[in-house]
From TrEMBL:
Its main location: cytoplasm. Keywords: Cytoplasm, Hydrolase, Nucleotide metabolism. InterPro entries: ITPase-like_fam, Maf-like. Belongs to the Maf family. YhdE subfamily. The keyword Cytoplasm applies. Pfam families: Maf (PF02545). It catalyses: dTTP + H2O = dTMP + diphosphate + H(+); UTP + H2O = UMP + diphosphate + H(+). Gene3D superfamilies: 3.90.950.10. The keyword Cytoplasm applies. Its EC number is 3.6.1.9. It comes from Lysobacter arseniciresistens ZS79. The record marks 10, 71, 153 as: Important for substrate specificity. This is dTTP/UTP pyrophosphatase. Transmembrane segments: none annotated.
């Protein structure tokens, strides 16, 4: 059985689009970047740790496959995680305003026999955002619970001047990479029928 180790409703929605049945594993994994750890390595490690924790939670199911994913916004080698509060969200959006940032989305698919991993990197350009726009966006609530204090699938899509990469990866689950990992274990729309 396939399990998604995530609380994210966006990841659930995206994985469901691939037409695979899956269960959910609700877990909390500490997301702390190590000293000197490269930003992309950090994102990949957190995705692996989510999948590992999920797999430990279904240890009795020898056929379990667990998908873990992490997505972070990176600007000037600084990882912008989920904002702590409204002030933090506004500060992140001010830093992203008028600049191009990187969104790294990593996926790990683990079984008791091993695993497969993939990383998608996208470049996202933002328009200049004035303080009134930032304040209104933060007040609307969409800034919370999302890396970089924005959700590209919502109102913040109007902030985007260019996207070089994967829209779904910026949402939280890179569809092409995820479908490729699932195909390697015989699941999903890219799997070759036997």
């Amino acid at each position: 059985m396939l399990y998604l180790a995530s609380k994210s409703p966006r990841r659930r929605e995206l994985l469901a689009r691939l037409g695979v049945e899956f269960g959910l594993i609700d877990l909390d994994i500490p997301e702390q970047r190590g000293p000197g750890e490269p930003a992309r390595d950090y994102v990949a490690r957190v995705a692996r740790e989510k999948a590992q924790a999920g797999l430990a939670g279904v240890a009795g199911d020898r056929d379990a496959l667990v998908l873990g994913s992490d997505t972070e916004v990176i600007l000037d080698d600084e990882v912008f995680g989920k904002p702590a509060d409204a002030d933090d969200a506004a500060a992140m959006l001010r830093r992203l305003s008028g600049r191009t940032h990187e969104v790294v989305s990593a996926v790990s698919l683990l079984s008791h026999d091993g695993g497969h991993h993939a990383v998608a990197v996208s470049q996202v350009g933002f328009a200049e955002l004035d303080d009134a726009v930032i304040a209104a966006y933060v007040a609307g609530g969409d800034a919370f619970g999302k890396a970089g204090a924005y959700a590209i699938q919502g109102v913040a899509e109007a902030f985007v001047t260019r996207l070089d990469g994967s829209h779904s990866a910026v949402m939280g689950l890179p569809m092409r990479e995820t479908a490729g990992l699932l195909a390697r274990v015989g699941l999903g729309p890219l799997a070759v029928p036997a």
